[in-house]
Amino acid sequence: MANTKDTIESASVVLGVDTIGPFSKVMEIKLKKEGYVIYVVDNLDSLKSLVEEKTPDIVLIDGYMEFAPEVKQWIKSSYRKHLCSLIGYYPIEYNPNEVKGFRVLEDEYIIEPYEISELSKKIDSEYKRLLQERKYFLNNIKIEFASTPTYVQEAGDFVEKLLKNTEMEEDEFLAVVNAAREAMDNGSRHGNASNPDKKVSMEFLLDSSKITITVEDQGDGFDTTGFLGDGVSGDAVAVARKRKLEGKVGGLGLMLMLRCVDKVEYNHKGNVLKLTKKLKKNT
């Protein structure tokens, strides 16, 4: 592989700011000196137009921007057969661990106070990671949401947008959408007991042969021994009835997911669920 410094000259960055001023000017000069092609915008329409036209490698998002959440959702759901890294820079009061509704996560972030050189190093590091990830993935997205029906629905709608970009057949598309919605709903209702102060995280990975959706909740998990075995071999109603008599939860949801994807896996604790769907053709 070519040296990263040699490839930086062809790398492009879009810097989205609340207001064009000293900070954006300094960043523009700094990144140009390092070999990046940089575009600075201060409104949503210009940012979208630039991303569509230039397909940048990195998009820097100012956390002060009113439209920052919309930009993150749009960039990550607009699949262009080109992995784009998203970096957020935030004011000092920003808390990355706070549960606030539904949000699409950036690939990296930095919080004030910080030096320009720190942000520049983060861009370089993220670009190196991006070059490696492009060898294996077509898309890599992470979201998180509070455990309420409203945000479960919003998360499901977002995943549906992602899946529309995979060019699956309609029946496969609907099956994976249903499995993903079921997994996230389970994480919210059963894993987190519908506690709005607990979040559910989802990672979406797309490569040329498969889709992987990993859902994690903040609950205590459950005893997974025999659970998947019952789901694979048993009748849905019978499994659900058996688990209810044993004072356990689940059965029907698991059967749904097993029938919609090629593989369902839990971690040992039982709070992480991974769904895998093989693609019939390259996306």
Please characterize this protein's 3D structure.
The chain is an alpha/beta fold and 283 residues long. It folds into 2 domains: 4-133, Rossmann fold (3-Layer(aba) Sandwich); 139-278, Histidine kinase-like ATPase, C-terminal domain (Heat Shock Protein 90). It contains 10 helices and 11 strands. It has helices at residues 4-8, 22-33, 44-54, 68-77, 116-133, 149-164, 170-191, 227-233, 236-245, 252-260, and strands at 12-16, 37-41, 58-62, 85-90, 102-104, 108-111, 139-146, 199-206, 210-216, 263-266, 272-278. The strands form 2 sheets. It has a 6-stranded antiparallel β-sheet. A 5-stranded parallel β-sheet has the order 2-1-3-4-6, sandwiched between helices. A hairpin with a 5-residue loop joins strand 10 and strand 11. Helix 6 (149-164) packs antiparallel against helix 7 (170-191) and helix 9 (236-245) packs antiparallel against helix 10. The longest helix has 22 residues, at 170-191. The protein is globular, with a radius of gyration of 21 Å. The model is unreliable at 231-237 (pLDDT under 50).
The helix fraction, in percent, is 40-55%
Overall 3D shape: globular
**Would you count the extended β strands for me?**
11
For the record, the CATH architecture of the largest domain stands as 2-Layer Sandwich
CATH superfamily of the largest domain: Histidine kinase-like ATPase, C-terminal domain
Instruction: Please tell me the total number of domains.
Output: 2
Highest-level CATH class of the largest domain: Alpha Beta
Q: What composes the largest sheet?
A: 6 strands, antiparallel
The whole-angstrom Rg is 21 Å
Classify the fold: give the CATH topology of the largest domain: Heat Shock Protein 90
Tally of DSSP helical segments: 10
Strand content: 15-25%
